[in-house]
Amino acid sequence: MALRDIKHYKYDEILRKKSRPVEKIDEKIKTLIKDMVETMRNAEGVGLAAPQVGILKRLVIVDIGQGLEVLINPTFVSESGENIDYEGCLSVPGMRGKVKRPDRVVVEALDENGNLRQIEAQGYMARALCHEIDHLDGILYIDKVIEGTLEEFN
Ligand code: ZN
Q1: 3-state SS string over 2-48?
Q2: Catalytic positions, written as ranges
């Protein structure tokens, strides 16, 4: 396992590119997942998307303190409600801002063993999933931040 460099929104254009689906969950992908978990924990983040470590693959991890979720090729099955709260990003260090997200989502994805499953999430977990999945399309939360709420944090 190894820590990977987290890309910074100001310097790394890769964060703005669209990621491609994972075609095969091979050893390379499994190593990437392990490295991403270590990198996320080391940075005390609650989520990380592969493009944040420079890999344009549709793969995200989330752990808001309720256990690790690995989502490969995630897609939204449904979204409902509204929830406005602060959000931050390891690629936008030292900042936070309020973003409107769906309050409930159902996401379908493969896990690290290639099993297709659905994850139902609400509130903070739904927010984390939306934020990470946006990264796969080159979208950052600062694109969606409610005007006037972006502020320095920590
Ligand atoms: Zn982020």
Answers
A1: CCCCCCCCCCCHHHHCCCECCCCCCHHHHHHHHHHHHHHHHCCCCEE
A2: 132
CA 58 / ligand 1 centre spacing (Å): 14
CA of 122 to the centre of ligand 1 (A): 18
Going from the C-alpha of 58 to that of each of 54, 109, 135, 149, the distances in angstroms are 12, 10, 9, 29
Domains and CATH numbers, the chain: 13-152 (3.90.45.10)
- Report every protein residue that has its C-beta within 5 angstroms of ion ligand 1: 89
Cα(26) to centroid of ligand 1, in Å? 25
Per-residue pLDDT of the chain (154 residues; tens, 9 = 90+): 699 999 999 999 999 999 999 999 999 999 999 999 999 999 999 999 999 999 999 999 999 999 999 999 999 999 999 999 999 999 999 999 999 999 999 999 999 999 999 999 999 999 999 999 999 999 999 999 999 999 998 7
Ligand 1 centroid to Cα of residue 31, in Å, is: 21
Residue 129 and residue 74 in contact, taking contact as beta carbons nearer than 8 Å: yes
Q: Give whole-number Cα distances, 103 to 79, 133, 143, 149, in Å.
A: 8, 15, 19, 19
